[in-house]
Amino acid sequence: MLKYVTIVCVLAALCSAAPQQDVQILRFDNDVNVDGYSFAYETSDGTSRQEEGKLDNPQSENAALTVTGQYAFVAPDGKHYTVTFTAGPNGYQPKTSLGQKK
């Protein structure tokens, strides 16, 4: 459930920050199981996200969720940005690309 709330919040933030336009969902994949989840989407405005979460040490008291993924978008200036990230016991660790016009 938290995953769906996060997706909705991200999409709402992207929609409110950009000028309104007719954006189509080109792809949406979603898989949830006991030990983790994965999802991916891509829209016609150049926005995309893919993420995978895996439960490490599920049977121990040190169980932790490790999430890896990336998201990309086109900024208002036309430059493309990509953020690759890992989140887990060591916190959120993003790596960004420099925006380039295509």
TrEMBL record:
Keyword annotations = Cuticle, Signal
| A single cellular component GO annotation | chitin-based extracellular matrix
Please state the span of the N-terminal signal peptide per the UniProt entry.
Answer: 1-17
Q: Give a GO molecular function annotation for the protein.
A: structural constituent of chitin-based larval cuticle
**Sorted alphabetically, which PANTHER family does this protein's record hold?**
ADULT CUTICLE PROTEIN 65AA-RELATED, CUTICLE PROTEIN
Q: What is this protein called?
A: Endocuticle structural glycoprotein ABD-5-like
Q: Which organism is it from?
A: Papilio xuthus
